[in-house]
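Many introductory courses stop at the sequence. We go one step further.
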Amino acid sequence: MRDLGTAVATLLATRAGIRARLLVWIAARNRATGTTETLGLWNGEDHAVLTIEGAARTYYGAGGLLAIEPVVTQVGVQVRTHRVSLSPAAPEVLQAIMGYDARLAPVEIHRGLFDAAGAPVSPPHRVFKGTVDGVELPTPAAGSEGTVSLTLASTARALTRALPTRYSDASMQLRSGDRMFRYADVSGSVPVYWGEKKAGAAKSSPAFDSVVFKRDRK
């Protein structure tokens, strides 16, 4: 169980009211410069500057973040996916999704606890970390509102990637001169016989086959 600290416990004991907010942080790549551009969105009423892990981050509110699927915390290495709905009417969303390259962009989701006046009770804690796995920007019908749908995959997705290096003698020598695969290029082309008669081997002579060995009897 997560320890939320004494400040949260004290506020809960007073029954004065507490609000939980979700904060989404995306780090996309600028196509023109190649630099990393960040965007913070949260389901608060207005923009806010919050301190996350010692760094000040600006989170835009007022409807930019429409909805987030319930974030489930569990033990294991299973790949978790979540869908986040953003408003295309927000200029910050359009800039991050259409102006920048959000493919496989790192994403963090934090949960912040605030009192009834809107002041943070404790530093927001992270509940999800992963990357943008897909972006959907469908064209809405006439007279209806559109949404930007992001599919997020947790960091466990990295465990499903194949190794980029090959098992060759050259690549293995980079590991402290390992020569285990020095014959890897000819593996499978050299026949090896284990307890079997070699194919195409010369047969024994008939004279030898006709010899019968008998044990002397007294």
